[in-house]
Amino acid sequence: VEVYSLSNNKVEFVLKGTCSDGQFKISACNTDYKITLYDLNLTNPNGAAIYIGADVTSKAFIYAPEGTANVLTGCLNENSENKATLKGSADMIFCGRGQTKVLSQYKHAIDTNGEIYFRGGCKLNIVTEDNHLSDTDELPGDGVHANGNIVMTGGEVEITSVGDGVQSGDESVVLKGGYLKVTTTGEKAHALKAAKDVNVVDGALHAIVKGAASKGISTDGGFVMSGGTV
């Protein structure tokens, strides 16, 4: 399913049901919108399950209603298109109290050129798996990757990744609330990685790193902890 143009305010897309080989794609949009995951089980073996095109600069509110269980699966082979199972081009805001699992085997699980926010009672299980057949294959990517800031203000997010758990390519990672658990297994994989700062203001971070030369927190800027638990 592809949306070519969206200009009306307060538009909501409700995605539900099961599809083993499909994609929901937004190609053009100039207003903020809401994507509701309502007991959705969507798989795209060859790319992103949800793909927001490069021309879309408006915010995506990704909402899972309480009581729902959702699974997004993508990038299951080495020739998969896109960079993630949930791929965006602008800001993503995760909210709602439903359960959402995002799984990738060859790319990132969640990736956007904008910023990522986890807020409220959101509950996410984010996984990149190593399902490669040879040592020459590209390793799976990060659990959560953004070029902008990655900010958590609430909810529960559990990430199991081969690459970095949470990485901001150009900005900072900020933990203001909620519970974030990150387990990484790859060589030189970090639980949190930022081009600028990592700031822990409140909430809790539980980091487990298993690979050679891996780090719990890696930053090219500074690390400031003013509250919370690590």
Identify the notable features of this structure and list them briefly.
230 residues, 15-stranded parallel beta sheet, mainly beta, single chain, nine-stranded parallel beta sheet, 24 strands
Describe this protein's structure:
The structure is a single chain. 48% of the residues are buried. By secondary structure, the chain is mainly β. The N and C termini lie far apart (42 Å). It is built from no helices and 24 strands. The chain has a 15-stranded parallel sheet that branches. A 9-stranded parallel sheet has the order 1-3-5-8-11-14-17-20-23, with no helix packed on it.
Based on CA atoms alone, the radius of gyration comes out at 17 Å
Figure out the total of helices.
0
Give the CA-based shape: globular
Helix amount: under 10%
**Which structural class should the secondary elements be placed in?**
mainly beta
Strand content: over 45%
| Uncertain runs | none
Mean pLDDT: 93
Order of helices and strands: EEEEEEEEEEEEEEEEEEEEEEEE
Largest sheet: 15 strands, parallel
Work out the number of β strands. 24
Task: Give the end-to-end Cα distance, rounded to a whole number of Å.
Answer: 42 Å
